[in-house]
Amino acid sequence: VQLQAFGGGLVQTGGSLRLSCAASGLTFSNYAVGWFRQAPGKGREFVAAIIWSGLRTSYADSVKGRFTISKNNANNTAYLQMNSLKPEDTALYYCALKARTSGDYDYWGQGTEVTVSS
Fold it and tell me: Are the CB atoms for 7 and 78 separated by under 8 Å?
């Protein structure tokens, strides 16, 4: 199984980025996807999640209304559209997959860095 997150970069406050999470080696449609982030000197925190079918999503309060998670089971890719970015969104962003029968995330990507300048 391979899981790769990409699309991070440097953006100004108020800007947008779209992160992608590409999976291979498994049946992507059987997995929920979660996005997490870890800012410098802080612990990892939940950002957003989408269930295996793509029909239900959840968000951290800090990103609700600004970020949108989606998944395309046809091309084994999940996305995190991030709008109205703030300096406090600066972090290393990870995607993770959870099987329908799992209680926790089974696979983690390597992370992509997002820096929001003020």
Answer: no
DSSP letters, 19-51, are: EEEEEESS-GGGEEEEEEEE-TTS-EEEEEEE-
Residues 6+ positions from 39 with CB-CB distance below 8 Å? 88, 90, 91, 92
Q: Which residues of the chain have pLDDT under 70?
A: none
Structural tokens at position 40: 């410098």
Residue 64 has a pLDDT of 98
| Alpha carbons within 13 A on the beta-carbon side of 115 | 4
Instruction: Retrieve residue 37's tokens.
Output: 């982030």
How many angstroms separate the CA atoms of 58 and 54, rounded?
11
The helix or strand, by DSSP H or E, that contains position 107, with its residue range, turns out to be strand 107-108
- At residue 11, the 3 state secondary structure works out as strand
Report residue 113 CA to chain centroid gap.
Answer: 12
Look at residue 103 in the predicted model and tell me its pLDDT.
Answer: 86
Do 79 and 18 form a contact (C-beta atoms < 8 A)? yes
Nearest residue to 92 (alpha-carbon basis) of 9, 21, 14, 3: 9
